[in-house]
């Protein structure tokens, strides 16, 4: 690795293998993980602790002469232990006068310097670097292969530069690591929220099912009661019939006895009375039976026929409820913003201290790029990291720029009010002027509504323009009241509505793309706005508004949620990217916050 061609003496971070995807099988992970020569190099250069006891307590030179002189210093170049006398000779020799000596009078770590041997010329130590070929070389390599190269220097001479770049790379990597760590913490918090929501939803589902089961049980009880009522009523009627039959049997028995007595009697009147009693009683009993048969229906059978098909169909179509998934933080409050980075926007060529007016952030070919308008220096600037180096680009304009908005993934539009211009700039992430349109008035703020129209804020009005700068309609009043005075900042929310921040009216107005007022936020009292400026929305639809040194959070419908104080004095531009990182403009810095 040390001898292979590379673009610079400092290994680029891009050369580090990318981490494997976490969803891939672990066998593929193991196959991608290679032995680290960096770690091996550290192992080679940092040996375990060494003292006079474990390196041999006698001078190495004296031992060869048959003497046993205690050694007191260690030469890390020659890796020998020397006594005081031999050290003087060692330092007097031209070949070893500059060797690093380590005092071993006490217990301490001995740093062994790893000698890198040239793989082509055995025994030759790598001591040179060819800047033209970007290769490390031994002395023989320099003579044979790099005679025509103009810049061959010692390895030692490039060490300070290499250390500088490595330290700078460490800072860049540390910043990225902190950012990732913050995102990981945020993701863990979301996972805990999902688990908590899962438990609550499961409880709601069980409760709904239990209520349905209770209703089915109630249906069962109703059917059972109905069967009991029918059978009890019929049973009582049948028991009454049995009682009647028994009474009739008793009457028949009495008639039989009366007739038997009359028949054995010699009295003719007894026979006549018995006959008359029979005649009258038989007729009455027949009338009673006929009447009861006409008035009473008798149950022949009771059956229950389940409507299985309809029940199963009803169960298939049964809707216990719906599971609604909202892809946003369930908490109304955003987490507290934590400052994670500062970007100083002073660059070479600035004639005055910068005064940032607005900011937006793009990701261009994987490179995160902050684009700002610098009022004092009449330019647009971009800041980004390329090959682990902090870079910037500067595009001068004819006049002072104000608002900035994203046109697409690689283009922004900037308002230049004093020149009555709107310029379109390509971000590569370097800045390239693409086009300029001239408008009838000077606009201070911009927001793209759709691919064919944009909103622009001017003195006392907001205009809807086509992409050529022609006014399609103007929005000035609502219910005969003036809506705007200085609509210097605006943005579009996820519903396509326009949010306008007016520092003079001390208000935020939500408009449809047709110009209709949806709502207006202009509180009084303790929550009254002081000097509102930058406005943006988060991925969850929440609104963030800059007001003096604080950021105010509003709901999507314009209701106050909370405020974050002591952010920065007199900030202007405000932007939140797709990862909910918040970028805020102070006068000379871009401040990046993460909601933790």
Key phrases:
596 residues; alpha+beta; four-stranded antiparallel β-sheet; 32 strands; elongated; disordered N terminus
- Shape verdict: elongated
Number of helices: 8
Strand content: 25-35%
Structural class: alpha+beta
Strand order of the largest sheet: 7-32-31-30
Ranges where pLDDT stays below 50 over 5 or more residues in a row are 1-18, 34-55
Cα distance, first to last residue?
A: 41 Å
- Average pLDDT over all residues: 82
The number of E-state strands comes to 32
Give the % helix. 25-40%
- Integer-rounded radius of gyration: 48 Å
Main sheet specs = 4 strands, antiparallel
Characterise the protein shown here.
Helix content is 31%, strand content 28%. By secondary structure, it is α+β, with helices and mostly antiparallel strands. Among the domains are: 13-167, no CATH class; 177-294, no CATH class. The strands form nine sheets. It has a four-stranded antiparallel β-sheet with strand order 7-32-31-30, with helices on one face. A four-stranded antiparallel β-sheet has the order 8-9-10-11. It has a four-stranded antiparallel β-sheet with strand order 12-13-14-15, with no helix packed on it. A hairpin with a 2-residue loop joins strand 20 (477-478) and strand 21.
């Amino acid at each position: 690795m040390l001898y292979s061609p590379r673009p610079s003496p400092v290994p680029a971070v891009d050369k580090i293998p990318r981490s494997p995807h976490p969803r891939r099988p672990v066998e593929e992970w193991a196959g991608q993980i290679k032995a680290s020569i960096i770690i091996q190099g550290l192992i080679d250069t940092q040996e375990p602790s060494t003292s006079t006891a474990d390196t041999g307590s006698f001078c190495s030179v004296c031992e060869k002469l048959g003497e046993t002189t205690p050694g007191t210093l260690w030469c890390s170049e020659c890796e020998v232990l020397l006594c005081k006398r031999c050290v003087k000779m060692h330092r007097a020799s031209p070949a070893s006068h500059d060797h690093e000596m380590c005092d071993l009078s006490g217990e301490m770590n001995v740093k062994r310097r790893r000698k890198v041997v040239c793989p082509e010329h055995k025994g030759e130590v790598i001591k040179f670097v060819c800047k033209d070929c970007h290769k490390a070389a031994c002395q023989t390599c320099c003579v044979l292969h790099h005679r025509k190269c103009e810049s061959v220097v010692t390895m030692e001479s490039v060490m300070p530069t290499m250390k500088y770049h490595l330290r700078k790379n460490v800072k860049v990597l540390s910043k990225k690591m902190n950012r990732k760590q913050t995102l990981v913490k945020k993701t863990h918090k979301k996972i805990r929220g999902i688990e908590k929501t899962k438990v609550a939803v499961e409880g709601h589902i069980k409760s709904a099912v239990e209520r349905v089961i209770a209703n089915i049980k109630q249906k069962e009880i109703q059917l059972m009661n109905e069967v009991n009522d029918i059978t009890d009523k019929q049973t009582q009627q049948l028991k009454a019939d049995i009682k009647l039959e028994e009474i009739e049997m008793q009457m028949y028995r009495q008639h039989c006895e009366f007739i038997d007595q009359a028949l054995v009697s010699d009295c003719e009147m007894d026979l006549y009375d018995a006959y008359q009693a029979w005649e009258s009683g038989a007729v009455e009993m027949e009338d009673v039976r006929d009447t009861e048969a006409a008035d009473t229906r008798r149950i022949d059978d009771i059956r229950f026929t389940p409507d299985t098909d309809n029940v199963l169909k009803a169960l298939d179509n049964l809707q216990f409820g719906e599971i609604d998934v909202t892809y946003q933080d369930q908490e109304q409050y955003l987490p507290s913003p934590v400052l994670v980075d500062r970007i100083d926007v002073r660059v070479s060529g600035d004639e005055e201290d910068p005064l940032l007016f607005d900011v937006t952030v793009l990701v261009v070919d994987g490179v995160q790029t902050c684009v700002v308008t610098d009022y004092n220096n009449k330019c647009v600037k971009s800041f980004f990291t390329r090959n682990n180096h902090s870079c910037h680009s500067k595009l001068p304009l004819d006049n002072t720029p104000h608002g900035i908005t994203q046109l697409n993934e690689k283009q922004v539009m900037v308002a230049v009010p004093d020149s009555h211009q709107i310029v379109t700039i390509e971000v590569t992430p370097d800045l390239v002027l693409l086009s300029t349109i001239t408008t009838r008035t000077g606009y201070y703020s911009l927001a793209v509504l759709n691919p064919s129209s944009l909103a622009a804020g001017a003195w006392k009005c907001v205009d809807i323009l086509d992409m050529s700068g022609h006014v399609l309609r103007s929005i000035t009043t609502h219910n005969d009241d003036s809506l705007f005075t200085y609509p210097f900042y605006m943005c579009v929310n996820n519903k396509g509505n326009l949010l306008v921040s007016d520092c003079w009216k001390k208000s935020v107005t939500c408009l449809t793309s047709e110009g209709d007022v949806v709502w207006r936020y202009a509180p009084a009292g303790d929550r009254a706005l002081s000097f509102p400026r930058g406005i943006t929305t988060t991925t969850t639809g929440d609104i963030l508004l800059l007001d003096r040194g604080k950021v105010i959070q509003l709901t999507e419908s314009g209701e106050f949620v909370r405020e974050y104080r002591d952010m920065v004095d007199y900030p202007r531009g405000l932007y939140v990217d797709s990862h909910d990182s918040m970028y805020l403009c102070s006068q000379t810095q871009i401040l990046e916050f993460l909601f933790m």
